[in-house]
From TrEMBL:
One of its GO terms (cellular component) is endomembrane system. The chain crosses the membrane at residues 50-69, 90-116. Keywords: Membrane, Transmembrane, Transmembrane helix. It is a multi-pass membrane protein. Pfam families: DUF202. Residues 8-72 form the DUF202 domain. InterPro entries: DUF202. This is DUF202 domain-containing protein. The keyword Transmembrane applies. It is found in: Endomembrane system.
């Protein structure tokens, strides 16, 4: 079987890339919703740019995630199609997403605590 590929060139690599695209799209849509909702929920004396920042950062992250996922998919396909050993992409993209989501959760918690503290006083 000397001319055969080392992997099945089916739809698995494409499905993986599409999953990353859906993730980036979900973050982008959620961030656009945050751009619409957060400024409306802001207290009257709050600085408006501060309430726009989470949405803008989310949209920017979605664009970066989309580009990184596309590059990762290209590297994985090249590694799978190569006749010599090439290193597969690692879990760096997943780590990046995990750090972003964790930072969003912490930021949301801080925001809720700040709003609860401001409304009880």
């Amino acid at each position: 079987m000397s001319g055969s590929l080392l992997f099945d060139p089916g739809l698995q690599p494409e499905r993986t890339e599409l999953a990353w695209r859906r993730t980036a799209l979900g973050i982008g849509v959620g961030s656009l919703i945050a751009l619409r909702v957060l400024p409306a929920a802001a207290p009257a004396d709050a600085a408006q740019p501060l309430w726009l920042a989470p949405g803008l950062l989310g949209v920017a992250f979605a664009v970066v995630l989309w580009a990184l996922a596309r590059a990762r998919s290209g590297r994985a396909n090249r590694a799978l199609l190569s006749s010599r050993f090439e290193r597969m992409p690692g879990a760096g993209l997943l780590l990046t997403l995990t750090v972003f989501v964790t930072a969003c959760a912490v930021g949301a918690l801080v925001l809720l605590v700040a709003l609860a503290g401001g409304s009880s006083g």
